[in-house]
Amino acid sequence: MNQQPPHFPPRPGRGYAHCNDCRLSNICLPLSLEFSDIDKLDAIVQRGKPLQRGDILYRSGEPFGAIYAIRSGSIKTWRTSRDGEEQITGFYLPGEVVGLDGPAEDSYANSAQALETTSVCAIPFSRLEALSRQVPGLQRNLFQLLSREISTDQKQFGLLGRTSADTRVASLLVSLSLRHERHKLSPTTFALPMSRSDMANFLGLTLETVSRVFGRLQQLDIIQASRKELHIVQPGALRELAHSESQNLCR
User: Residue 211's domain spans which residues?
Assistant: First the structure.
C-alpha cells in the first residue's frame, strides 16, 4: 500500500494550519478526541497545493494510499463504464471525505476531480489505521465515515430506480441544503458547485430535463436560480417533493 499520497509533497514546515485550528474541525474530527490525540492525527496529515478546477486528485484503478478531507472547494467523483461513458457518482463539499471507495480492493474504484479551486488534507490510510487502534474515538469516526458512504450509495441507487425527474432534482438540492446547514452555512442560499450537465449525469437524466425541472421549480416560486446561484424560497415544498417517490410538478 502506498505511504505517500499522489501529488502530495511531504508536510510543509511552519505556517500550515493545524487540525485544531481548522474551521471544519468540528465536522471532520470526533468530538471525543483530546488535544494530544488531535496532535497525533495532525502529525500524519499532509497538505499540498490547492487543486485547480479540472485537476485530478486520483484516478480509478490507482493504488489506494490515502483518504482526503476537503478543506475548501468541491470534488466530484466518477467511474467509466465498459462502453467508455462517464457516470458521476458523487459530489463532495468542505468537511467531507473522498477516497473511501479505496480500502476494499486497495485501489480507487472512482476518479476524483476538482470542480473549482479546492484544498484537501491527505490522510495516509495505513497510518490512520494504526492511529485509530490507539485512539478509540478516531476508530469510531472512521467506521461512521465508511457506513455513511455505503448508506449514501444505497440512497442514490434507490433514487435513480424509483423516482421522477422532479423528485431526483429536488432530492439533490435538499441534500446540498442539509450539508450546508451542517457546515453552519446558509441552507437556503448557496452556490451550486456542479454544472447542470453534471447534475443530469449524476441523476440519470438529460440536461434538457434538468433545465425543465429548474424552470418549473422557479415558476412555482419554490426556488430562484441564476446560473450557479441558488435560493430556496420554499424549503418545506422542496422537501415534500424530494420525499415523494413518483410526483411530477407538471404531468
Answer: 163-242
